[in-house]
Write a structure and sequence with these properties.
By secondary structure, this protein is an alpha/beta fold. The protein has three domains: 207 residues, 3-Layer(bba) Sandwich (FAD/NAD(P)-binding domain); 139 residues, FAD/NAD(P)-binding domain; 74 residues, Arc Repressor Mutant, subunit A (Orthogonal Bundle). It contains 14 helices and 23 strands. The strands form seven sheets. It has a five-stranded parallel beta sheet with strand order 3-2-1-7-20, with helices on one face. Strands 9-16-10-11-12 form a five-stranded parallel beta sheet. Strands 4-5-6-23 form a four-stranded mixed beta sheet. Strand 4 and strand 5 form a beta hairpin. The structure holds flavin-adenine dinucleotide (FAD).
Length: 459
């Protein structure tokens, strides 16, 4: 193909490394990202007039952040870069995008999706109170705006991000009240043999926990969160069961919560990609081969949007997917390079399975969410209402339960309530989680402004 039309969604580590290789091959891909600046989640850039250094913003990852930003800036005028542009649907080899009040269809010969991940949340009594944030939001306020979610913060959930965000708050001068981890010490030790695949990350993690403890932050493992206390104006505390089963309360003015991440796989879904269930993370993820080829001929997937492997893994995945794309278009491939990238990838996969073992999604806690708790914030549906749709209206899987209950039909399109509602539906049926299926992606994958009037079409 002489001049293939290639579209990349996502300008994070995966999208940047993919675009770099395509540009080096003489191509000019369209790069779409809804953020104002490239960098993705971990290397998110603040507004241009902010002056904090890379070291202040990214800490130990400053070098990698600088490298990703410099790489993108070096090829930015050789790609068709669409910042602040949302890819909201994929259909018939076209990506549908929205910028401000304009929508446009971009046709492609090959599509490379690298849209990253979002927080994986567990609905909790009181989680809709003002002052309760996801971990990602707590971090974004700090990284992008230099703000904190509160002065007295409790972080609750599990996974590396839980400790990292708490540490970042402490370094910014806001030592958290406590870190409440649902994973027990025994579970964390069980993940160790796999996590040694990346010793440097393991050491970094241990240093973060030790620094938190030295900074006076309480770190409790094996907890069961019960309620975010407060009223409709603020958060006043956190109630939980400790590892010994004793109920405790902590005073705080804000809560940051998150249980590792979930892949943003809706665009892959709309592109028609096949999915498979991964029991270690209890998630449905798009099927890919060792290079990032999806089940659809001209769709390639990379980064956290297909497997949560972290930023370094995302860079490797982006490169592999770009090589696969070039190879399928007839470009010559350096096989030694491919083998070395694939070996690196296997190390990331091994480490990620250790993380999944050490910080498991506490599915028993999810299945036991009390009936009165709001499970779907957007549509204000309780877990009890969802269970009723399962039992009274015979909904053995989530899409049917969604149709009857409206769980997952609101603004978030099930991105935040989906993982929990799958567990609740499966448990209410007394069936394994796979049988509940996954909430299918629907366009628009994220909300569009009301009043879009203009439509232009390219190509
Ligand atoms: C909230 C959050 C905080 C994190 N913090 C850390 C951290 O501190 N340290 C760490 O090691 N790892 C962190 N991670 C994980 C780390 O960010 C990822 O492993 C890494 O960034 C993955 O790179 P990626 O390129 O796959 O995705 P990302 O870096 O997430 O990049 C994806 C890009 O796609 C864009 N995008 C997504 N959907 C669309 C769409 N529909 N249309 C247009 N653009 C779209 C996004 O704006 C984003 O720029 C965090 C993850 C999340 C979700």
């Amino acid at each position: 193909m002489a001049d293939p039309r290639i579209v990349i969604v996502g300008a994070g580590p995966a999208g940047t490394r993919a675009a770099e290789l395509l540009v080096a091959a003489g191509l000019r891909p369209v790069v779409i990202d809804e953020s104002p600046r490239s960098g993705g989640q971990i290397y998110r850039r603040p507004p241009p007039n902010f002056t904090r250094s890379h070291e202040q913003l990214y800490g130990t990852e400053a070098g990698r952040a600088r490298a990703i930003h410099a790489t993108f800036d070096a090829f930015a005028n050789k790609v068709d870069y669409r910042a602040e542009t949302l890819a909201w649907a994929v259909k018939d080899d076209r990506v549908f995008v929205q910028k401000a009040m304009t929508v446009e269809q971009i046709p492609y010969d090959a599509l490379l999706l690298a849209p990253g991940a979002t927080d994986r949340l567990i609905p909790l009594e009181g989680w809709t109170r003002p002052g309760c944030y996801s971990l990602g939001a707590a971090q974004i306020t700090l990284k992008a705006q230099g703000c904190a979610i509160g002065q007295e913060v409790v972080f609750v959930g599990t996974g590396p991000l839980l400790y990292l965000v708490a540490y970042q708050y402490m370094k910014a001068g806001i030592a958290p009240v406590a870190v409440l981890d649902t994973s027990s010490l025994a579970q964390q030790l069980r993940g160790l043999p796999l996590m040694v695949a990346r010793p440097e990350q393991l050491i970094k993690g241990a240093q973060i926990v030790s620094a938190l403890r030295q900074g006076g932050v309480r770190v409790l493992r094996g907890v069961r969160p019960l309620e975010v206390l407060g009223d409709d104006r603020s958060v006043t505390g956190m109630r939980f069961c400790d590892a010994a089963g004793h109920e405790q309360e902590l005073r705080c003015t804000a809560v940051g919560m998150g249980y590792h991440l979930r892949a943003e796989s809706q665009l892959a879904d709309l592109a028609g990609c096949s999915f498979e269930f991964h029991p270690t993370v209890r998630q449905w993820l798009p099927v890919i081969d060792e290079m990032g080829r999806s089940s659809i001929r001209n769709v390639y997937l990379a980064g956290d949007g297909v497997r949560i492997l972290g930023a370094d893994g995302a860079e490797v995945a982006g490169r592999l997917a770009a090589i696969a794309l070039l190879s399928d278009l007839g470009w010559p491939i350096d096989q030694a390079k491919v083998r070395s990238l694939q070996a690196e990838m296997r190390r990331h996969v091994r480490f990620a399975s250790g993380i999944a073992k050490a910080f498991p999604w506490p599915h028993e806690q999810v299945a036991a969410i009390p009936d009165r708790t709001l499970i779907c914030r957007c549509e204000a549906i309780t877990a009890g209402e969802l269970r009723a749709s399962v039992k009274d209206l015979f909904s053995p899987e989530v899409n049917r339960a969604k149709a009857f209950s409206r769980v997952g039909m609101g603004r978030c399109q099930g991105r935040f309530c989906g993982p929990a509602s799958q567990e609740v539906v499966a448990a209410a049926n007394g069936a394994p989680i796979q049988s509940a299926g996954r909430i299918r992606g629907q366009a628009p994958v994220k909300p569009l402004p009301i009043g879009i009037t203009e439509e232009t079409s390219r190509g």
